[in-house]
Amino acid sequence: MTTEMTTEMTTEMTASTSPAVTQAISSPVEDVVVDPGRCWSLYDNEYYPGHLWAKHFPTQAEAVAAATSKDKGIVLIACDARDCVKRRHAAIHAERERQCEAELQAAASARAWRLVGHCATEIGKADAKAGLVVTLQLGLIAAAGSGALGATGVLRWAAIAVLTIGVLIAAWAVLPRLPKLSRRTGEGQQGQGAGLNFGVVRGLDAPELAARLRDVDELSAASTEAVNLAGITHAKYARIRWSMLAGVLGLVLVVIGTGVGTGVGA
């Protein structure tokens, strides 16, 4: 907006226009011709003089007509047409930035949900592996306890004890984990922004759930869920590893006990 084209003189419009409309012009009120070097702009009073809501019109009459359709807070100004173009470009650029940010947000949310799916798949695989480990170790315990493997004495009981520990660790790996809720608010311990899970949903009725789903931040919810599931997956695999190590140690003790028992019997 140039100094030549705009002055800071503000007066009330005539009774034919809205009382809330004011003008700041450097030319007469009459709108006789369209000056290609000048355009008329409307700005929200609260953000004057540069809110991106600004609308630009080639004539004062069009600007006044648009201004009178607003309730209040409209400022009518005359400005250089080049300034109008710059403001249009600024508004377009700002809109493109918002669209770009929304696209980046959507892409990040999609990646986060894919990670959630990957973690959920790995949790299923970990549970299946834990079940297999438990089955094998229970078989070894049964065989060692019955004496079918030939292990005798202290080594046999040591093997059974170690294998039992391995079974318990594997069972710990597949133990269902319930969400920890606050006793005072009923929310997850990580707060309301942490997203929804069955532990929270079970305490809501349908309207409350609908409201929560409308307010949820997709990226925040997906990221929180991915972090939680990644921690669960890591814990499961760590326990399965310890269970397998216990199983290997128990098997070694059974083999040694069998060898000792065979040597003693010979």
Could you characterize what this model shows?
It is a single chain. A five-stranded mixed β-sheet has the order 1-2-5-3-4. By secondary structure, the protein is of the alpha+beta class. The chain has six helices and five strands; from the N terminus they run E-E-E-E-H-E-H-H-H-H-H. Helix 3 runs antiparallel to helix 6 (218-265).
Give a quick rundown of the structure:
The chain has a domain at 125-265. 60% of the residues lie in helices and 9% in strands.
Secondary structure elements and their pairing?
Blueprint: E1 10-12, E2 21-24, E3 38-44, E4 55-57, H1 60-68, E5 74-80, H2 81-146, H3 153-174, H4 198-201, H5 206-215, H6 218-265
Parallel strand pairs: 2-5
Antiparallel strand pairs: 1-2, 3-4, 3-5
Helix pairs in contact: 2-3, 2-6, 3-6
Characteristics:
266 residues, 60% helix, 5 strands, 5-stranded mixed β-sheet
Q: Helical stretch count? A: 6
Shape: rod-shaped
Biggest sheet overview: 5 strands, mixed
Please list the strands of the largest sheet in the order they lie side by side: 1-2-5-3-4
What is the mean predicted local confidence, pLDDT? Answer: 68
Question: What pattern of helices and strands is seen along the backbone?
Answer: EEEEHEHHHHH
In percent terms, what proportion of residues is strand?
5-15%
How far is the first residue's CA from the last residue's CA?
108 Å
β-strand number: 5
Helix content: 55-70%
Low-confidence stretches: 1-38, 43-54, 71-76, 182-194
Q: Structural class, from helix and strand content?
A: alpha+beta
Radius of gyration: 37 Å
